[in-house]
TrEMBL record:
Family annotation (InterPro entries): Kinase-like_dom_sf
Phylogenetic classification of the source organism: Bacteria, Pseudomonadati, Pseudomonadota, Gammaproteobacteria, Pseudomonadales
Residue stretches spanning the membrane: 233-252
Protein name: Protein kinase domain-containing protein
This protein's UniProt keywords: Membrane, Transmembrane, Transmembrane helix
Species: Marinobacter salinexigens
Amino acid sequence: MNGQTKCPSIGSSWQPAAITDASDQKWYKPIISVNADSSGNRHVYKAFRFSRGLLGNYFRFLASHEFRMLKKVEPLNFTPDQASRPSDRSPTIHYRLIEGRPVKDIAAGNALPDNFFSQLFSDVKTLHQHGVAHMDLGNSGNILVSGRGGVPAIIDFGSAIPLSWLPSSVQSWACRKDILGVLKLWHRFDSESMPLFLQHYYQSNYRKNIYTPKRFLKALRRWVTGDAGSGDMSGLATVISVFFGLLVLVSFT
């Protein structure tokens, strides 16, 4: 491990402007608001609910992790920039808002810009060259069609991992997961523009990820109790699985 990534190749003052409705939101999800400063520049403000005790430590860790990932990709023109935190003791993070709409919404209106996914594919390779894998690019909500020129933008780096100093096999797996996430959306929303070799690669390699800690615990609970509900337990499983996953990954850095 020499610090280079080994990804596989396949060819001021805040004024609230908007806030998410937290009343029906799960307890482990951050509250996200959009704020405008005195100059009218808009920023995303993400705040977790707990700041003390074990949960406070955990959510501070999540905020710190996302902040570090955003700082690593800050020079790129398709990721959020101006990331900052009020203090290391606060489970919060804020960064510049990228104006745009989710790719799913644009695709529903048949209004995707030409070459959108080929540009996104190239951007993800650039992301990897800067030492970061996003790890959730198959989620269409994390890909925006920018309001400035209709170019791709990638958001939400809470699940991102640093590639540098990870074993080459882990680097390859993480990069491959990102690429397959892009190909999943490409195939779903604009398959006609997808090159044939990428279609073959996607169809040969994409598998729905069913073997996750969260889904395992959920299936086990259903088997034991016959209960398909219990959203709070599902949330707890998410917190536990994300915590231990990130703990293992950052131990390499």
